[in-house]
Amino acid sequence: MENTCIHTFKPVNVYMDISLVSINDFDEVAGTIKIVAILNISWNDESLVWDTSVYGNTTSLTFTQGKIWLPQMFLLNPAESNEPISNKHFKVTVTHTGDVQWNSGGMLKAICTPDVSKFPFDQHTCTLEMSAWGFLTKQVTLTIPSPTVNLKLYNVNNEWDVIDSNTTLWSDTFDIAKYSITIKRRYLNFLVTVVIPIIMLALVNPFVFILPFNSGERTSYSITVLLAFTVNMTVVSDRMPSSSHPMSHLSYYILSMISVSAVIVIVNIFQTRTYSKGDRNQPIPRYICKSVDFLQQICRRNRIGIKTKRVLTQSSRNDQTVTNEAIEKTLHLENSESPDTTDEPLSESVGSKAGEHRIANDGVHEPTWDAVAKMFDRQGFRKQF
């Protein structure tokens, strides 16, 4: 009877950990990350076992890596050429039991898709995918002993902090080891030099509406703030990532502030023109009168509501019952500030503030051009806050 000899091969189990040394560059536009890492790779090779008593009690040997078989590792998501992660000058250490320790590594440049929508408070997760290229799972299997990336040798980066890391293993026809690191931008410098100045400019922008018309500084003030935003925009654009998908929310904020400043400049020009008009020679259109009256009524209701709340709060603190007489007194005091409707000459102004209202020839109460300009001041300053 013919004997059949069946040879079975078991796969080589390769253990691989990664130690992060430094983050050299992270390009948000190109979507690449460049790091220096060390691969700590070990396995057991039965063909390298020897008897220590025969070889002078030698338990281990260290020699160049080209003299034995190596599970060459490849980066599967490279940003440049795909070459083995190794160097001919690296050495391996072999023990008499066949255990092999190989420390490989170098400069790795991988693809990393960024998300700069929260710039400068953004964080990114980059993954390095590695595999023993050319070996199937039945030949070489990968094992990742550690659930995180080793950071003992990591050199702190001035722009990025490593806040998290994890490892996963994908296995099918061949094994892929995935090492993920999450980096967060150091935003303090950008916050002090860019974000805070922009917020301060946005705060001083609406104060143009409280400058008097006859000061001659309203238009120049608003134009100065607009130019400051424009200059700041050019400075910020050089420091922000030039990514269009997605764009940073800060870019939209700066654009909105420039738009608001441009609108304020236009409004101030029209206000100055309105304030200088003569009430006799240039009558106010009826739709403008209605608009001003409507805005005045809103302001009056707001003042009545505030005063009523003060009466209610003061009465509740004193444990007194709020009577309708107190509220009616508040309304009466507020209504007494409204313009009178008594007959006066056309050139004479009446109302709560001199020069803001007049009685037209037909007896209709209407605002003056001065009142129109000042009403835009009240609304413009109030809407900004």
CATH topology of the largest domain: Acetylcholine Binding Protein, Chain: A
Largest sheet: 6 strands, mixed
What would CATH call the class of the largest domain? Answer: Mainly Beta
Described by the principal axes of the CA atoms, the overall outline is: rod-shaped
- Contiguous helical run count: 6
- Note poorly predicted spans: 1-8, 337-364
- What would you give as the CATH superfamily of the largest domain? Neurotransmitter-gated ion-channel ligand-binding domain
Rg from Cα? 39 Å
Q: How many extended strands?
A: 13
**Major sheet: arrangement of strands:** 3-5-6-2-1-8
H-E order: EEEEEEEEEEHHHHHEEEH
Strand content: 25-35%
Please, how many domains? Answer: 3
Helix content: 25-40%
- Distance from first to last alpha carbon: 100 Å
CATH architecture of the largest domain: Distorted Sandwich
The structural class is: alpha+beta
Average pLDDT: 77
Write structural notes for this entry.
- Helices cover 33% and strands 25% of the residues.
- It has 385 residues and is α+β, with helices and mostly antiparallel strands.
- It has 3 domains: 12-186, Acetylcholine Binding Protein, Chain: A, CATH 2.70.170; 189-275, no CATH class; 286-384, no CATH class.
- It has a 6-stranded mixed beta sheet with strand order 3-5-6-2-1-8, with no helix packed on it. Strands 4-7-10-9 form a 4-stranded antiparallel beta sheet, with no helix packed on it.
- It is rod-shaped.
